[in-house]
Specification:
532 residues, mainly alpha, 3 domains, five-stranded mixed β-sheet, two-stranded antiparallel ribbon, 66% helix, globular
Length: 532
């Protein structure tokens, strides 16, 4: 144990990549097990319909124009579909899973480059993988946010890299071109991140006049040129740019105080920091090393720590006052906190030996309690839907016990085996919790129902009759559409009439056409009709 701890102290970079390698199976095992949910089917639908129509310029769902997001992420997802030849849930989630690992590596290299400290860099990168939000939620969803946040974080790092060299053209051009790319992924938030970051940096460094420099103007025009080129091409297929722009604006403004009301906003402002400390637990426990005066002075004495602090403060307020903010919207800002917390832990730990000991015993206690509780896996009836349950349970228990013992035995580097323990927790989540959700939820039923309707209607038109769901129902409807289209490899079409021959799928109503034949009914009032 002493030799192992000494190795981790001497080679933190190797420790990072060893733990990163260990992290791959826990995050990828059963990644494609659950049916698509939340925003996943929306992204998948757009990508699939691009392939079916062979038109990658115009996003659609059900053959109707989709305006909520520009298509960069859908292009990437479509590329994964085409390269792999598969439209599976696993492939749908890869464009989020792969950037997650690349994001962690980017954090490691950028922090090591700017701080020249591999311990802080390794811990910062690992924190991105094992914070509570990523550990059991965002990492298993094919959402746009990890990829988008990765681009935004790279932009932050590029801005600081070129600022230190006073290479203003490179600074502006690099960040604005990344802004153009991220805009084509998610829309207006990219301009907000770019604008507030650049403005805060220039204001703090007393370089506001650079806003009027030719370097800034040319770079801004280059950004607009890239975005404009996409919309010019889009206009050739659909001239309704006003509808596109208004929808993008609505997507970005709907969560502001003007939309949600002041009472809800004030409650959100109070809860916001505590809510996100909870989302980032157990990583957020290191905030305890930041609660002293020397911490604040230390931030201001280091240019990189000062920059990421300014960047965080310049952008976080937008979400702090927006009561409908989702944690995944902040994935580009969380790493800035991880760097600061890792810095505080390694820098001030010697000054607070009691806090250091308490933290070690807290981590050991959490790991020990979970490890001792793992044998209950044999008493939940999991063997009905978890293959090789005894072997998997033994692997998880042994892995958890190994890392728990390391936490106990290590004198200084106990936090690294705690990271390893959290990865074992994720492995258990993938092996046992995900199958439990599949077995006990209704998602698999509706997936199979949609696939069955796709098979029944294959080769003939399939219409979604009177498709007008409210916002909260859209993910469910889009999930049904994706599985139908994937089965048929033809588009579903939304209609308000029932006179055309073909199959009709309804959700909350019956077909009015008297010649319509009910083919099959499903749960939740889902019905499939046929009109001859």
């Amino acid at each position: 144990m002493q030799q192992l701890e000494k190795f981790l102290q001497q080679y933190p970079g190797r420790a990072f990549f060893i733990l990163l390698f260990i992290a791959v199976p826990p995050f990828l095992i059963n990644l494609g097990l659950l049916p698509l949910f939340a925003d996943e089917p929306t992204r998948a639908n757009v990508a699939l319909e691009m392939i079916l129509s062979k038109n990658f310029a115009v996003p659609t769902i059900g053959g109707e124009y989709y305006y909520n997001k520009p298509p960069l992420y859908n292009w990437m997802l479509a590329g994964f579909y085409l390269v792999t030849g598969s439209f599976s849930e696993f492939v749908t989630r890869l464009p989020a899973a792969i950037p997650m690992f690349l994001f962690a590596v980017t954090i490691y290299y950028s922090v090591n480059y700017f701080l020249k400290n591999k311990q802080i860099a390794a811990l910062s990168g690992l924190f991105f993988l094992v914070n509570g939000r990523m550990l059991i939620y965002d990492s298993m969803l094919g959402h746009i946010d990890i990829f988008y946040s990765w681009l935004t974080y790279i932009s932050f790092m590029g801005i600081f890299f070129f600022y230190r060299r006073k290479q203003w053209l490179n600074l502006f051009m690099f960040s604005y071109l990344l802004t153009a790319a991220s805009f084509l992924a998610k829309g207006l938030p990219s301009l907000v991140f770019q604008g507030f970051t650049i403005l805060a940096l220039l204001a703090y460094t007393k370089n506001l006049k650079k806003l009027f420099s030719w370097q800034h103007i040319v770079s801004g025009l280059a950004c607009l040129l890239v975005i404009g080129a996409y919309f010019f091409n889009y206009y050739q297929h659909n001239p309704n740019l006003e509808g596109y722009f208004s929808t993008i604006w609505d997507q970005s403004s709907r969560r502001t105080p003007a939309k949600t009301g002041m009472t809800k906003t004030l409650l959100h402002i109070i809860q916001f920091p505590f809510e996100h400390l909870f989302h980032l637990f157990p990583v957020s426990i290191l905030v305890l090393f930041c609660l002293h005066k020397r911490f604040w002075r230390g931030l201001m004495e280091n240019d990189f720590l000062k920059f990421i602090s300014i960047t965080f403060l310049a952008n976080i307020w937008v979400y702090w006052i927006s009561s409908e903010t989702r944690p995944r919207y902040l994935l580009m800002l969380y790493p800035l906190l991880f760097v600061i917390w890792a810095h505080a832990y390694y820098t001030y730990r010697p000054s607070f030996p009691k806090l250091d000991r308490v933290l070690k015993w807290v981590m050991f206690g959490m790991a020990g309690i979970v490890t001792m509780g793992l044998p209950v896996l044999f008493f939940f009836g999991l063997e009905a839907y978890v293959g090789y349950l005894p072997l998997k349970a033994a692997v998880v228990i042994a892995g958890a016990a190994f890392f728990t013992w390391q936490i106990y035995r290590f004198r200084r580097e106990y936090i690294l085996p705690f990271v390893g323990f959290l990865l074992i927790v994720r492995l258990a989540f993938s092996w046992f919790v995900l199958p439990h959700r599949l077995h006990n939820g209704d998602a698999a039923y509706f997936r199979q129902a949609a696939i069955e309707m796709g098979h029944i209607s294959r080769g003939q038109p399939l219409y979604f009759y009177q498709y007008q769901p409210d916002v909260l129902s859209i993910p469910f409807h889009d999930r049904l559409i994706f599985y139908m289209e994937r089965t048929r490899m033809e588009k579903v079409k939304f209609v308000a009439t029932d006179a055309m021959p073909g199959y009709y799928f309804t959700f909350d109503r019956d077909i009015k056409n008297p010649s319509a034949e009910l083919i099959k009914s499903y749960e939740a009032n889902l019905k499939l009709f046929k009109v001859k």
